[in-house]
Amino acid sequence: MASDGTPTGIGKAMKHLDLDGHDLPPSPAPSSPSTGHKYALATELVYTESNDQHNASSMPIYQSATFKGGPGQEYDYTRSGNPTRTHLERHLAKIMNANRALVVSSGMGACDVITRILKPGDEVVTGDDLYGGTNRLLTYLKDNNGIIIRHVDTTNLEKVTAVLSEKTTMVLLETPTNPLIKVVDIAGIASAAHAANPAALVATDNTMLSPYLQNPLDLGADITYESGTKYLSGHHDVMAGVIGINNLALGEKFFFMINSTGCGLAPFDSWLLLRGIKTLAVRMEKQQTNTMAIAQFLDSHGFKVRYPGLKSHPQYALHWSQARGAGAVLSFETGSVALSERIVEATRLFGISVSFGCVNSLISMPCRMSHASIDPATRKERSLPEDIIRLCVGIEDLTDLIDDLSQALVRAGAVRLTENGFEALELHDAGRTRQVVDEP
Ligand SMILES: Cc1ncc(COP(=O)(O)O)c(C=O)c1O
Ligand SMILES: N[C@@H](CCSC[C@H](N)C(=O)O)C(=O)O
Predict the structure, then answer these.
(1) Which residues form the domain of 336?
(2) Pocket residues for ligand 2 (CB within 6 Å)?
(3) Labelling 310: which of 27, 32, 297, 419 has CA 20 to 30 A away?
(4) Does 28 map to a domain?
(5) Can you tell me whether residue 157 is helix, strand or coil?
(6) Per UniProt, which keywords does this protein have (predicted)?
(7) Which of 111, 207, 235 to mutate to test ligand 1, by most ligand atoms within 8 A of the CB atom?
């Protein structure tokens, strides 16, 4: 124990059993159950105990595959457990309000670990707007593993309830969704799912907001997971996935999968993630401020903007009842694929790139990039507009960002700069009330 009562020891080796009851190699002990934060979240993000024998201020990177000492040790092999990874997992459990957190090599790795518990015939209820990679994995499970996947508009609780049944074993939600920024009632769906089948697991992808802004476990979800590649790390220099759970038996199943498949996060990547988490609050605050101003700027030019910071967002009230901020991703429609392409190509500061959550601002056309793996017919069926542009706003100076978008809109032919400011050109009210026909 530290003088303040915080547990500091690496902990005693725990006995782990595999799914058939056989002994597993020693693995790190789960974090102690969450008892509430001692400090404000911004402080908790920074405050970690390194547990280092030399009192190193930064948790050392245990860049070792093996640990000497034989049976009974907490660590024997990094696939099964590593002190740097354990330290990160304990820190994450604290900020995710989870009893246990586990870290793996990517967000999709986390989704894979979670969905590996599904069996043929199991039913999964999920959204009609989902990150393309998640859709790809679920489609694979449907086509190859006999899992039934039901896509439904998760913003509509009645529609969700209509497809829930005792056969529903998992509900997989994103909120806000990527890229349509739809907001989903986590508590409402969790309670409907558990009413339909008390054993159903509600998993929420929290990538868009991070634990700084939303804690799905507090809202009734059984699992929260996210791509640590995004806000948690914040610099696009590491791939990571994070899983948080309160049910320790479920945590053991996920640990079994991680150890068996070898997807646990590497020591150096664990350290990078730990480092990124410390600045999550300041990054997120600045990114949100910038995003709100950009959302208003685009809205004022007649684009159809999707951002839960805007009162015009259809689930504005719901969003603010379950989250502490609107995040830093917005999408907007121009009404024309050709115009969208011109805008994306005309930006200078906003880099054309997939992903989000980085300190740098990015611009993308999801249908061509992050969601290209969803075939065009399915995109149409699910009302994913081909002209949609996604902005992932960073921490740059706001004036520079607005200036960049302004010049891009002018160069792309969307607005014209006049003595009185910007004047809409060919596409005033674009995408909101007008049908725009693309030029060939
Ligand atoms: C909402 C969402 N979930 C999960 C993932 C997967 O994360 P990763 O790229 O770290 O595998 C992504 C992006 O890739 C995402 O946007
Ligand atoms: N080629 C990748 C695309 C990654 S998209 C990353 C991120 N989730 C986003 O939404 O931008 C793939 O096919 O997975």
Answers:
(1) 280-424
(2) 131, 133, 178, 354-356, 370, 373
(3) 419
(4) no
(5) helix
(6) Lyase
(7) 207
* 172 Cβ neighbours under 8 A, 6+ residues apart: 115, 124, 125, 126, 127, 134, 138, 203, 205
The total of structural domains in the chain comes to 2
**240 CA closest ligand 1 atom index:** 10
Indicate whether 194 and 292 sit together in one domain: no
* Encoded tokens for 333: 């429609």
Tell me how far apart the alpha carbons of residues 173 and 186 are, in angstroms, rounded to a whole number. 8
CATH number at residue 324: 3.90.1150.10
Alpha-helical segments (H) within 130-182 = 132-145, 157-163
Establish whether this prediction's ipTM goes over 0.90: yes
pLDDT at 425: 56
Active site residues: 79, 131, 205, 230
213/288 same-domain check: no
- Same-domain pairing of 101 and 194: yes
pLDDT digits over 100-113, tens only? 999 999 999 999 99
| Cα–ligand 1 centroid distance for 390 (angstroms) | 15
Ligand 1 probe mutation, 177, 213, 229, most atoms within 8 A of CB: 229
